[in-house]
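Re: the request from the purification team.
They wanted to know what the chain is likely to look like in 3D before they choose a buffer screen. I agreed to run a prediction and write the result into the notebook, where they can find it.
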Amino acid sequence: MNSRQSLSHLCLREDAQKKIGGLLSVAPDIVTIVLCDAEFWPAIEQEIKVMKPIIDLIADEESHNLSLTSYMLGLIWLAKTISQLPIEDGDDVDFWQHTKAVFNQRFS
């Protein structure tokens, strides 16, 4: 089961839809977003595309206990990777432009 199915399944549970013992396991606005907002899943997928290189860099640096120089080279690789991410059909162009502008500002 992928994350979309898992989260949707969680939001469909009885305790996410109806209070049990006066409590909900998932906030109602989250249930509405996950189940009804057509823009939610494409936005999450686009954010994952940006976050994956960041997570990969962190994992690589932690697993190898590298030097500051190696870490700086990793940050340069990260900035290059993010600046070259393609805009695909359905992507939020404003999100890409903002993300790339932030990275360009930090690494210029």
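For the purification team: Residues 40-64 form the longest helix (25 residues).
Please add any questions underneath this entry.
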